[in-house]
Amino acid sequence: MGSGGELAALTADGVAAEARKVRDRAHGNRVTYSPKVFIPLTMLCRDRCGYCTFAKAPARLESPYLDLEAVLAIARAGRDAGCHEALFTLGERPELRYPTAARWLADHGYASTVEYLAAACRAVLDETGLLPHANAGALYEDELALLRPVTASQGMMLESLADGLAAHRRAPDKVPERRLATLEAAGRLAIPFTTGILVGIGESRQDRVAALTAIADSHRRHGHVQEVIVQNFLPKPGTGMAGHPPCPPEELRWSIAVARLLLPAEVHVQAPPNLSDDLGPLLSAGIDDWGGVSPVTADHVNPERAWPALDLLRQATEAAGHTLAPRLTVYPEYALEPDRWLDPAMHFFVLDASDAEGLARDAAWCSGGEALPPDLLDPGRIGPRAGAASAVGEVLAGVGLGQEVGAEEIVTLFGARGSEVNDVAEVADALRAEVVGDDVTFVINRNINYTNVCTFKCRFCAFSKGPLSLNLRGDPYLLELDEVTRRVAEAESLGATEVCLQGGIHPKFDGDYYIDVIKAVRAGSDRIHIHAFTALEVTEGARRLGVPLADYLLRLKEAGLKTLPGTAAEILDDDVRAILCPDKINTEQWLEAHRTAHAVGLRSNITIMFGAVEQPAAWARHMMVTRALQRETGGFTEFVPLPFVHMATPLYLQRRARRGPTFREALLMHAVARIAYRGDIDNIQVSWVKMGPAGARQLLRAGANDMGGTLMDENISRAAGASHGQGMGVEELAAVVAPLSRPLVQRTTLYGRVATPTPA
Ligand code: SF4
């Protein structure tokens, strides 16, 4: 990179090529935007900038400030339209210029505009969960600190450090030292901060280099500059600069590229899409963000420039070989390090709006809920195939050549967005067809949850009760063994070929209890397949009896046990387990239980419970360790993704978890698993209880081939708040699968075929 003088002498094209390389290395092909609403808290301002149409005189406003009800009405509309950000735009310190503003504040009990802003942010957070971003101008450190507990990020355009600009002559808050002081104070307070420059207000290229260098230096000191906006000046009628020429597109591109080169690579560079007619040149100059895009409110700063519809933005982004992803007002690098960057009062609000990458949840759907999933595989909504130049495209090209994916490639695939999601699904679907054909399989089974009493304290579990607790979702219970026998006989008479037994770890159980349960099942049927007891249950059973696990598993096998469910795996990553289930078996113990089961001739499956607190790297580790064990033993029959159902779980109620995976993440979990387990595990199962029928149908087009069991009674997801029923008959399964024109085929637990489907 050249000096400021050298850069100033170059053309936009002369700097853009290098800027693109820096952007692509740091941010890949992903371009983000923030779905937001503007809340113009006050349009009064003590400054008189030459280009501004935002600020109004009191006589032109009904009220000096929006009252809280008006603020909330905008925020609610934003929430209902799927926004995550409430962008508070406001003039600077109007109470120092206008008595009417000072009076309004005093009448409402606020000492300053900033104090009222804090109250408005608090109201929006509490009412709607939208994340406030305060854009309140040049603030003092105590004012920034006041806003930190009620905002996810803050911002202030540096605009320019040039002295004596006509545009700023009557703007006391636009003095460069004041703005630099605000930037520094935000850094000291560890506030994720947005700043930027205005291009074309009379400043020189050297002035822009100076401003960008100052921002870069501040970021190097504090690490807090999350993004820099490079905004082009457009003259507006009725302003002091109405006759000033607009910023030439070449100057904007040059400034974007130079920003990309002067700023540390991790800082995001943004250009507002509504201020340019052609978006491709902005991307080719090095931006990786479009800023806030509002489906609800006008841009109050540039009201004459309509926002491009989201679909157009997506098309322009994808046409340039990028993918578009919604983000929060706080960028992922900061959202994923909340202890450093967020006030504790903001942690949950950010978590609740986040996906696993720290970006924004992209739809209302959550596992077990009633909202329909977005149609990610609808060809009408997706763009062209991701170019091989993208990281996802490169991994898929390797998969096409038969290459195995490792942890890094798995994480890359989980980052697929937009049309890339369809590409991953297509590759997974083709592999599914190649490996297991078109059959959609299911097993007729009955779940028997024999007790909900448990001594463990898994923080994601809404099912278990302490022995003495009463709970809103039902009392503690322990089924009599006779009842187990009765339910088994009844299940068999209804056509079941399998019973699936899972329960809590009752304090009274010794290892013999599990043997007695198997005997009770056998008393109900001498041939039904017994799929029972997690790695935790058998490990506890052996421990309580004081016998080696292999001996204990052999006893269970001799009593009639055939396969073990993979539940209790949760995420096989001990750092994540320390949050989810600290007192449960660890990763190595889960693997050892299954290794031992396979060694004594039992088979089992792999589950993953995902979407609560972890990131995609943990999913990749889970796949890698289970794939390695499968290569050692060959004992796993299938992979079963179980999306975290958040509603009634202790972890979510304690405000320490996300609301489960997004539908995109759930779909990718099935598709990526199909790719990652190729040649090792042939069956990828859908949990229809958690995904719902419409979700399940999409997963069957994205690598999954099995619908699991009909269940008859399923209590565990239901206890966590899932609303998709406790059983599904064969006819209902057929209705889910029918639109796919693929055969629905009844199977045995071990994937043999059952001749004729038996009505359930
Ligand atoms: S997940 Fe299982 S072990 Fe954990 S608390 Fe719930 S029932 Fe007990």
Task: Using brief descriptors, characterize the structure shown.
760 residues; alpha/beta; 9-stranded parallel beta sheet; 29 helices; 13% strand; elongated; binds iron/sulfur cluster
Brief overview, please?
The protein is of the alpha/beta class.
Explain this structure to me?
The chain is α/β, with parallel strands linked by helices and 760 residues long. The protein is 40% helix and 13% strand. Strands 1, 2, 3, 4, 5, 6, 7, 8 and 9 form a 9-stranded parallel beta sheet that branches. It has a 7-stranded parallel beta sheet with strand order 11-12-13-14-15-16-17. The protein has a 3-stranded parallel beta sheet with strand order 18-10-19, covered by helices on one side. β4 (153-155), α7 and β5 form a beta-alpha-beta unit. It is elongated, with a radius of gyration of 29 Å. The N and C termini lie far apart (70 Å). 55% of the residues are buried. Mean pLDDT is 92; it is low at 468-473. Bound molecules: iron/sulfur cluster (SF4). Iron/sulfur cluster (SF4) binds next to loops. The site of iron/sulfur cluster has 9 residues, from loops.
Question: How many strands, which pairing sense, and closed or not: the largest β-sheet?
Answer: 9 strands, parallel
Please report the total strand number as a whole number: 19
Question: Helix content range of the residues, please?
Answer: 40-55%
Question: Structural class, please?
Answer: alpha/beta
How confident overall, as mean pLDDT?
92
Q: How far apart are the termini?
A: 70 Å
